[in-house]
């Protein structure tokens, strides 16, 4: 069987990486049908198919060897994880999309796999071998890849070995990408098309998965698809009730559900139901109860999908990942099997570990009977692991103990799945048990947070969480905010001015809302040496380029002047006038202080008409004049500029919202829009800052009727003519 998983990580400004795990196997079996077999499992949003082949019981057929070299058995799964030295992918909409790195696991029959039989020296040296497996993008992109792998483990009794490797692929960042692996043919297996109805199958296979690297609104980053790992061959005892929990997890914390694959695109000729069993879609547990006389190989095709509940509404699926496996029903006199007990971690238990720091955990195994012994522990992991000799517990009959140790090396950061199973002297195996580890640097920033509610307040409270506790009074350096598009630093905050939270791992600080631009992505970086850990290590910096945020600018009030001319002020008061000349449409007029910004409009009579319309808008802001001129021209201080325009001061920028609408975004929580012909619109994005502090034709925005026509001296105009005359320039 083969299993694929994909994790997406930010590698540099042009990379987004995905990790795929794909095992594949080719094994002969003594019970009918006597064929070599392949199982497939897809873990993320890439699909890798498994291809069966025929083989004699004692020697694989040549086509088996060829299939093992050319076909991938399992699934692909793109996921995003934070890596301390990672950088952002290309901006969305980049002409070439994003270069995605795939890490994968691939399994094959040990005595016929590419590169020869895997032995312990191969695992130690991790020599690169060629798989002969092509991955192809069939939608959204046109890439293909022929990756290489390193042998990372093997199982002699079951005659399989597993390798890990990577390949890169360009995908588009603005639509769904579909990666596919297809071929012919499966080994001869049975498919249960409906309960108690089955057929023999050895036809073509297809594995397909989709990747979408656009930003999810609920988590502020691209989706990470579900992760799963499986044994190359799942063995089930006939005549016994058996539960097989699938090892599934999701880096985003989404709800992973498993269902039967349907249709030619998902499962081609192996669509069907669980043979002599059922599937709990919510828990992803397979239940089997095969009759005692059932034996042989059976194919099962599943689809894994991830969902999220936001504000009480269920969203998804965000990705659809195939998992295709081979089930072998084996006649047995007894139903007892070895199992994990005691101190063994549970499935999907999570652990945070650091680079170059050994991490160990205990494993206890109960044999199927007192006469059996646990003889080996096997792992499926892209990380190097070691374990102690297996020993019998003298105080508990049939219980054996070992421990596993993992020491992550540099460049191993991110979330990974470590899976293992034990084999007893009878040849029976335990379930596959998987834990999730997050590998981080010694004392590095691992996350940042803020309250979205603060986005409409003057001060936003930010928190930077590190992997280690700080020494008191050890903070230095800066936390910096960057314009992601232009790579321009916007503002920096001295770490020494931040508060160290009670857990001694978190720096918290406030930053004025006005310091950050609106409507554009911003990301955070943390300087090296920003603090010293209690262990005496200088904390490393981190670039959160892969996790940008955008401050939404919610207009609390809107005012416009349009053709005819018609006006609507900040309090939805509508009025009209055919006045001409220059008028103050809106200005920030704080009590007892000079105006901080002003929006003037120029009205002139339209040709062959008695009505006037807006042909120009001049915005005085930050000591400069931004002019929107009839026929779509834009000037700054009288100089024509091309859009988009980012002022060198960083105080404002001008974009096209939808051509020809020009939009001025400022750091002062107001926006001005001009459609190039007749309409000028001013939007206020801070009620706290502007309520009762405005003046001009748009009113004072004070919630009173008099505020609709307030004059420069604060009194209320007796009529509209007086009101317009008062605001003429």
Structural commentary:
Mean pLDDT is 78; it is low at 1-96. This protein is mainly beta. The chain has 4 domains: 2-333, no CATH class; 336-441, Immunoglobulin-like, CATH 2.60.40; 445-550, Sandwich (Immunoglobulin-like); 557-726, Protein Transport Mog1p, Chain A (3-Layer(aba) Sandwich). Strand 57 (662-666) and strand 58 (670-674) form a beta hairpin. The chain has 5 helices and 60 strands. The chain has an 8-stranded antiparallel beta sheet with strand order 48-47-46-59-58-57-56-55, with no helix packed on it. Strands 1, 4, 19, 22, 25, 26 and 27 form a 7-stranded mixed beta sheet that branches. The N and C termini lie far apart (79 Å).
Q: What labels describe this entry?
A:
Immunoglobulin-like; 5 helices; 7-stranded mixed beta sheet; 729 residues; mainly beta
> How many structural domains?
4
Described by strand count, sense and barrel closure, the largest sheet is: 8 strands, antiparallel
**Average pLDDT, to the nearest integer?**
78
User: Helix- and strand-based class?
Assistant: mainly beta
Uncertain residue segments: 1-96
**End-to-end C-alpha gap:** 79 Å
The strand count comes to 60
Shape: elongated
Biggest sheet strand line-up = 48-47-46-59-58-57-56-55
Q: What is the radius of gyration?
A: 32 Å
Oligomer: single chain
Percent range for β-strand residues: 35-45%
Helix-residue proportion? under 10%
